[in-house]
Amino acid sequence: MARAAVPRRLGDRLSWKTARLTDRREESSAARTLGFEVPGWPGHLAGQHVDVRLTAEDGYSTQRSYSVASAPDGERVELTVQRVDDGEVSPYLTDELAVGDVVEVRGPVGGWFVWRPEQTEPVYLLAGGSGLVPLMAMIRVRRTVGSRAPFRLLYSVRSPEHQFFESELRLDSSGLDRTYLYSRSTPAGWPRPAGRFTAADLAAAGWPPDFEPTCYVCGSTGFVERAAGLLVAVGHHPNRIRTERFG
Fold this sequence. Notes:
This protein is an alpha/beta fold. It has helices at about 10-15, 90-95, 130-145, 165-170, 200-205, 220-235; strands at about 15-30, 30-35, 50-55, 60-65, 75-80, 100-110, 125-130, 150-155, 175-180, 215-220, 240-245.
């Protein structure tokens, strides 16, 4: 049987590319942002992810998927990785991978959970823990292109020590509305006690359903299912809710 030709752009995305680590910075006690140069990188949309492959000297290889944290910037790609203590890949990436080391990446992957600069409707971003990473890419793209699409962010995290991108979000001057919720411990004097988010929290931090915002929800399976269910319960149409989960 004849094999259909693969368009060059699709072929570029499906092929493994060499990614060399150029810099790294701490985002929290357990997370690092890793900057890579990827020759031949085809570009990406905010919200997409990549597959990362590690290969040992004996030929054993393993791969994991990570969201792209950065806005498109030529052949530079940033991934923010949270260490899973009993994981096989994340401890190596966060603790051992050194500047100059090489991994392989494939992508970008995904076309549903993305934000494009031509979108003008209100956007409601709901992040649980490290689920902020692809949403941060959306925030950065919006800021880079000067979009006037109104953005609101609800970020639920265990404690202040687990926050990602704290200083960047605090200094953001693009008009991004931000609400923080802490599930286990709060900053001193925080007005809301620590605990799980509620329907009232989602309604207070977000857009009214009749504004027809696009809602992007990312986090653990439990976070995503709870948030998506509460969004529907307070009146948001399911077709306007896009979800991405990890774990």
